[in-house]
Amino acid sequence: MSGMVALELPSCGFTLLSKMRSVLMVLGLCVLVFPVAFSERCHPHDKKVLLQFKKELNNPYFLASWNPEEDCCTWYCVECDDKTHRIYDVFLVSSYPDTNLSGQIPPSVGDLPYLESLTFHKFPNLVGPIQPTIAKLTKLKSLLITNTGISGPIPDFLAQLKNLELIKLSFNSLSGSIPSSLSQLPNLESLQLDRNKLTGPIPGSFGSFKKPGPDLILSHNQLSGPIPASLGNLDPDRLDFSRNKLEGDASVLFGSKKKIQVLDLSRNMFSFDLSRLTFPKESLIWLDLNHNKIYGSIPVALTKVENLQQFNVSYNPQLKGQIPQGGQLQRFDQYAYFHTKLCGSPLPPCTK
What we know:
The protein has helices at residues 16-33, 36-39, 44-56; strands at 78-80, 87-93, 103-104, 117-128, 142-152, 166-168, 173-176, 190-192, 197-200, 215-217, 222-226, 238-240, 245-248, 262-264, 269-270, 286-288, 310-312, 320-322, 341-343.
């Protein structure tokens, strides 16, 4: 028709539709050839820090998945937040004693500002002190360094990390005293410092922990001195002070109104009258007092403890009298009462 302009198609013979299909195909190939540009979630700062972290550990094969060509949110031993894409968890756990991870805790770990949990477990060749740059991790909730070769003192700077809920530094070679400043941690639920070389007393400041107080697992050290009277203010689930050199009166840890479940004071030098103590009837499941200097007799109040599963008062030579009948006390064998002056079931009958 005259006066109308004809629509000219591309001279290559493509229709407009086929041209669009071609463009989409090219875009698809780009996604396949350059996937990182479209799928990388990990924050570039965190990725750079983790690669430096790996380098400071001498590039162990254990961290072979930490490939700079891949998204660090997909690497082993790290967790990436789904929304912020920041690294919030670094958990290095070995199932093999010969894992070739060695050196000190990498200083670069302090440059992961969103880190909430840090774990090193079963790396005997990880040595040196607890890294000072950890003090920068203000969001940290869990610090777990266990079964390693780390040494030196427990640092005061841990008290600056107000979000800490768990400190577990067990099976290491830490030495020196326990910092009293740890009582300033308002959210601490568990403090586990067992199987180290710690010396000195249990800090009296620990009585000022927010009630009910954290579990205190301080066993297998060389702690000495008396139990601070202030600990009577606390009522955590677990207190384990076993295998130390503690002495004196520990009766402040007992009481019928407490809700403690596990109380282990074994293999110390405690000396107090057991007969005048009371016990929580419903919560207590574990009471171990063996190898001390406890005296008096076993109180009838112990027969009222409903769910006692572990009980041991052996090697307290001044403990005497008849074992009260009833409750759970007769279900334990004679070794729970061995090397005392007690009598009655399960031991031989008392004589006049």
